[in-house]
Design brief:
Layout: H1 7-16, H2 18-26, H3 35-41, H4 46-54, E1 58-61, E2 64-67, H5 69-79, H6 88-106, H7 110-148, H8 152-183, H9 185-190, H10 194-246, H11 256-262, H12 280-283, H13 289-307, H14 315-319, H15 330-347, H16 356-362, H17 371-384, E3 389-398, E4 401-408
Antiparallel strand pairs: 1-2, 3-4
Helix pairs in contact: 6-7, 7-8, 7-10, 8-10, 16-17
Length: 409
């Protein structure tokens, strides 16, 4: 077995053969990948291909090559492309957690105790990731087994085996919960690591969601098995009918005659298109009178609708000028207020500045503006230009209005 000397060597080896490795990974489920095809992807550089074989990145089997299991598992793990359901690894994680917590309880050196806590956090993350991945693979495998497996017996066996794996995943979820809440409760009570507490909180939340997903998987398995059972019964009946028909015993050994006598179903047939062309002989008969009257009534209705249509615009309508109201420029109004107060302060520094509301009540606009609209403008300016204004604690009264006095900032 070849052992790489450094991460740098691994990265360089994979990088040089990235085109070939990508192609082989995408075709990993096919049974064959020819040596000549691999050589062509490496631009006929046989030395490079031999180097990959020596470092056991790929393996040769006669005229064919395949990815080594280590690299295949590594790529599938990072890309989350592995469809296998592996519950044994979670058992190993839980056993490893018990060992780490035991070491932590017996250790007296702070730095080594921290290293055990670090490994515990890493292992809990692995349990969460592996559990979620297993459930995703379980649901995918259930759907694939039901929809794509052509043999009924194999389909049933696959679903039953997947149900056993579902039970194993549920058992591991319960074991993990029991470890946190009961088996190692003393450790978690003494642990003061905030990150560990956060990891445990996220893990328990993910385990609860996983348990709900397992309930759905169980429902799907039961539903699929029931459908398969009904399909198998139907197929068996069809086979029996076909056998009796082939041996000319269908009427003698079945109740076909009674069923056919009770059957009153009409075969579904397409509706023939209706023809609206009437012959001259029919139009001259008394039977055509109701049809002719109905057509005349429809024509009168069309004339009524046409008479209610609006006529064309006259030249006077087209030349009528539009009436519009000039909009007030809030930027200009706010700027005039701030400049007016700055000029007043320049002229007399001891003079009290005029508040915005009072200013707007006597401000000269380009059109006539009543008091209600001026009040609305006051609210709009305060809202839009709050960074340039200062709202004081003082209040003023103008007729029925009570307002906060606003000054330049």
């Amino acid at each position: 077995m070849y052992i790489f000397r450094s991460i740098h060597e691994i990265i360089n080896t994979v990088s040089v053969a990235r085109t070939l490795l990508t192609e082989m990974f995408e075709k990993r489920k096919s049974l064959t990948f020819r040596y000549s095809d691999a050589l062509a992807l490496l631009k006929d550089d046989e030395n490079r291909l031999k180097l990959l074989l020596e470092k056991e990145v790929i393996r040769q089997n006669g005229n064919f090559v395949e990815l080594d299991a280590r690299f295949l598992e590594f790529f599938e793990l990072l890309l989350e492309a592995n469809e296998d359901i592996n519950t044994a690894v979670i058992d190993e994680y839980i056993e490893y957690l018990h060992e780490l917590m035991d070491y932590h309880a017996k250790e007296r050196i702070p730095s080594r105790r921290e290293s055990y806590v670090r490994n515990i956090k890493i292992t809990f993350r692995k349990i969460a990731r592996t559990t979620i991945r297993n459930i995703m693979n379980l649901q995918t495998s259930i759907d694939h087994a039901f929809k794509h497996e052509p043999t009924y017996q194999i389909k049933i066996t696959k679903l039953e085996n997947l149900d056993k794996k579902r039970l194993n995943i549920q058992r591991l979820i319960d074991t993990t919960e029991n470890l946190i809440l009961h088996d190692e409760r003393k450790f978690f009570q003494e642990a003061t690591d905030e990150e560990l507490k956060r990891i445990l909180l996220e893990l328990r939340s993910e385990l609860q969601l996983s348990a709900h997903s397992l309930i759905r998987a169980q429902q799907d398995i039961i539903s699929y098995l029931n459908q398969i059972k009904s399909q198998v019964i139907l197929v068996e009946k069809i086979r029996k009918v076909k056998y009796l028909h082939d041996t000319f015993e269908l009427r003698a050994k079945s109740n076909l005659t009674e069923v056919m006598e009770r059957e009153r179903s009409v075969l579904a047939e397409g509706t023939p298109p209706s023809s609206f062309k009437l012959s001259l002989e029919f139009l001259g008969s008394d039977e055509a009178r109701p049809v002719i009257l109905k057509v005349l009534k429809n024509m009168q209705h069309r004339e009524t609708v046409r008479s209610n249509e609006a006529g064309a615009f006259s030249e006077e309508d087209m030349e009528t000028a539009s009436v519009y109201q000039e909009a007030i420029d809030l930027d200009e109004t706010a700027s005039d207020y701030i400049q007016a107060q700055a000029q007043a302060e320049w002229n007399d520094k001891n003079a009290e500045p005029e508040d915005l509301f009072s200013f707007l009540m006597h401000y000269t606009f380009r059109r006539k503006v009543d008091e209600r609209e001026r009040t609305t403008l006051f609210c709009q300016i305060v809202s839009l230009y709050e960074n340039q204004l200062r709202i004081s604690d003082r209040h003023g009264i103008y007729k029925e209005y009570e307002y906060a006095k606003v000054y330049p900032a």
